[in-house]
Amino acid sequence: MRIPVLLGCAVAVCLSTALAFGAPDPADGPAPSAHPLEIRLDPAAKWEADQENIRKVLESSAGALWVYFPGRQLAPIIVEPKGGPITLFKRGKNGEFRVRLNTGDRYWAQYAFQFAHEFCHILCNLVEEDTSNKWFEESLCEMASLFALRRMAETWPADPPYPNWRSFAPALKKYADERMAKAPLPAGQDLAAWYREHEAALRRDPVQRELNEVAAVALLPLFEKQPQHWAAVGSLNAAPVRTPRDFAAYLADWHGRAPAEHRPFIRQIATQFGVTLADLPATTSAK
Q: pLDDT (tens digit, 9 = 90+) per residue, 68-116?
């Protein structure tokens, strides 16, 4: 979904980015994944950096999430550098997902942050439906960006796309940490109280980055502690709903459609927002 232009790439981070990424040796690239994800850079677009380097960054960013979807298949994703960040509802002529970023040069942390957000929308089953609870998906996707950057910062020292990119790992973490530092829950307020205060505003306008980021930072520890439950977002928006419903009903629908192994995790998320979801019989299958 469209978000404001990301200006969070601090000068120091951007400079360290440009310095850290030298010309790679193609022979040093990682082995092909057994669980492929096809990311294509639009050849008609004007790219401001080496396209193979860009693709490696995007693959690493998406891969931090994709690893938790071993049984899922996705159409190719066509990426453009400008015009977003947004994932278009209208697919490509062969069913490809279409993602537009809003970055350039060699601002790799920004590429990674924006693409992880848009990739999360794809994983959440991008649909046109009632937007009264869309803020939750936006917050999940903002959290996905933080998760991906922090995971890349952990894995790149040992397994970067190219060996000479190892030194950039701290800059990835710094980019995420600086964004998180700006979005804590107010002192003395839990997520449920925060949501009650901002519910009307969120339902009216789902894309409010300052609010989305607060929810994202609050939810991040759950996903970092139990990352295998990223797969639960694959049951979100499984069937478009055109009429407004309250947040509890939205979460209950997600819970009912999710595989049984993810339902306790969804109940944990609901509890964070002050919503109690009833357990379902073990024999109940996802719709």
A: 999 899 999 999 999 999 999 999 999 999 999 999 998 999 999 999 9
Q: What are phi and psi of 162, to 5 degrees?
A: -140, 145
Q: Which two tokens stand for residue 10?
A: 């601090």
**Those residues with Cβ within 8 angstroms of residue 44's Cβ, 6 or more apart along the chain or in another chain:** none
Please state at what angle helix 134-155 crosses helix 169-181, rounded to 10 degrees. Answer: 150
Q: What is the pTM of this model?
A: 0.86
Instruction: 176-183: list long-range contacts, CB under 8 Å, 24+ apart.
Output: 176/113, 176/145, 176/146, 176/149, 176/150, 178/8, 178/10, 178/13, 179/8, 179/113, 179/146, 179/213, 180/146, 180/213, 180/217, 180/220, 182/213, 183/210, 183/213, 183/214, 183/216, 183/217
Closest by CA position to 118, among listed 159, 85, 71: 85
Separation between Cα atoms, residue 100 and residue 121, nearest integer Å: 13
Q: Tell me the two tokens of residue 231.
A: 């797969």
Residue 99 has what DSSP assignment? E
**3-state helix, strand and coil shares in percent for the chain, rounded to the nearest 5:** 50, 5, 45
Break the chain into its structural domains and give their ranges: 1-24+34-287
Identify residue 122 by its one-letter amino acid code. I
| Residue type, position 60, single letter | S
Cα(29)–Cα(233) distance, integer angstroms:
30
The CATH class of 1-24+34-287 is: mainly alpha
Which amino acid belongs to residue 22? G
